[in-house]
Amino acid sequence: MASSFSSIFVLIFMLINFCYLSVQETHSPKPFKPPLNQFDSISFPLTTSLVTKNTPNSKNTFLSSLFSSPNKPTPSHATPTYNFKASFKYSMALIVSIPIGTPPQPQQMVLDTGSQLSWIQCKKQPKRTLPKSPFNPSLSSTFSVLPCTHPMCKPRIPDFSLPTTCDQQRLCHYSYFYADGTFAEGNLVREKFELSNSQSTPPLILGCAEESSEADGILGMNLGRLSFVSQVKVHRFSYCVPIRQHKSKTLPTGTFYLGKNPNSNTFQYIKLLTLPRSHQMPNMDPLAYTVGLVGIKIGGKRLNISRKVFLPDAGGSGQTIIDSGTQYTFLVEEAYNKVREEVVRLVGRKLKKGYVFGGALDMCFDENNLEQIGRMIGDMVFEFEKGVEILVNNDRLIDDMGEGVHCFGMGRSQSLGVASNIIGNFHQQNLWVEFDVANRRVGFGKADCGRSG
């Protein structure tokens, strides 16, 4: 990882005391890609043109807690009800194509429940190369930029988790510098999203990135004031992550709903946790979807992990979040050690000794007989309050990293520089996940996500 938590803390201290108005945020672990020399065959793992970093990374939750607080969208009779269904491609992230502007221009965006600000690739004179092109503001009649006089661009009004600055054109400028070295910067703008031929959003605030090390944008879906969810006042949304086949040349297709999901009568729900502000500093992200994980089972055996490990302490450490923008699952040290101890007990002789993949995954294998290893480990279960469970079948525990290397899809949160438990999209395969924002709960439902609708 490019920076440690301590260095991020120093940066934030500098931001506050010297009014340095750009922000470093470790992003929702960008879809993970190993070193190029190990994975040349799929250098663009999310879509045919998305380049990702060589190591896992995650959002710096500390920044969000400093500058904002959860914003629960409240139902309003004057607010239109959005019902939108779309498909997305899944490799290492959930890539949805959403038409933006007037007339609409399709934009590829990472569906990210761990980010607030949405942003798109924005070029003034883009090369119209299909199937992917950056957004061209000059072609949209509903596009507008935020001037420096806009409240969002006044740093002394602390209702904004993304510090901004005024550029030479007197426009509101933002900068995201991620801890893994990726970045996105440009101007804050307003633009509408075209959800269907008959339904579009009002102009929303989002980032128009003219400089970025990523090829796709971000659809920010957390509880922050500037997230897509909050600005549109989405009451609920859901997605179904399909199984990723290692040897398939085509990316599987999943389903994304804004609004009511016809399958929701089969879902089991758990409440989102709400904790006092005193528990949000310095490590907790109050804008994340925080849930009450109570235990983990492997092969039917409940691991000896204290429940308090999965709940935020007074400093916010130990928060458990559901994050579609993180590929793998990461656990705090005490919980991870228990998982690793059990995996070593079951298949220790098959592990690559002293090997750590991408600086984060240290339970890896050389052999290709994944079915046998999976059967030896058994199914894994994440246990939540009220008996709700996420079952991860043994054939979905280990991921193919290329060149004959396979790794158990779980790592230490410490390797990311965070103090949270993060359940990533790899362990959400073949599962409906619904974020019922209006009722502050998350629902889970078993599904064949390659066929769900």
From TrEMBL:
<keyword id="KW-0064">Aspartyl protease</keyword>
<comment type="similarity">
    <text>Belongs to the peptidase A1 family.</text>
</comment>
<keyword id="KW-0732">Signal</keyword>
<dbReference type="GO" id="GO:0004190">
    <property type="term" value="F:aspartic-type endopeptidase activity"/>
</dbReference>
<dbReference type="InterPro" id="IPR051708">
    <property type="entry name" value="Plant_Aspart_Prot_A1"/>
</dbReference>
<dbReference type="GO" id="GO:0005576">
    <property type="term" value="C:extracellular region"/>
</dbReference>
<protein>
    <submittedName>
        <fullName>Protease</fullName>
    </submittedName>
</protein>
<dbReference type="Pfam" id="PF14541">
    <property type="entry name" value="TAXi_C"/>
</dbReference>
<feature type="domain" description="Peptidase A1">
    <location>
        <begin position="94"/>
        <end position="445"/>
    </location>
</feature>
<keyword id="KW-0325">Glycoprotein</keyword>
<feature type="active site">
    <location>
        <position position="323"/>
    </location>
</feature>
<dbReference type="InterPro" id="IPR034161">
    <property type="entry name" value="Pepsin-like_plant"/>
</dbReference>
<dbReference type="InterPro" id="IPR001969">
    <property type="entry name" value="Aspartic_peptidase_AS"/>
</dbReference>
<dbReference type="GO" id="GO:0006508">
    <property type="term" value="P:proteolysis"/>
</dbReference>
<keyword id="KW-0645">Protease</keyword>
<dbReference type="Pfam" id="PF14543">
    <property type="entry name" value="TAXi_N"/>
</dbReference>
<dbReference type="InterPro" id="IPR032861">
    <property type="entry name" value="TAXi_N"/>
</dbReference>
<dbReference type="InterPro" id="IPR021109">
    <property type="entry name" value="Peptidase_aspartic_dom_sf"/>
</dbReference>
<dbReference type="InterPro" id="IPR033121">
    <property type="entry name" value="PEPTIDASE_A1"/>
</dbReference>
<keyword id="KW-0378">Hydrolase</keyword>
<dbReference type="InterPro" id="IPR001461">
    <property type="entry name" value="Aspartic_peptidase_A1"/>
</dbReference>
<feature type="active site">
    <location>
        <position position="112"/>
    </location>
</feature>
<dbReference type="InterPro" id="IPR032799">
    <property type="entry name" value="TAXi_C"/>
</dbReference>
<feature type="signal peptide">
    <location>
        <begin position="1"/>
        <end position="21"/>
    </location>
</feature>
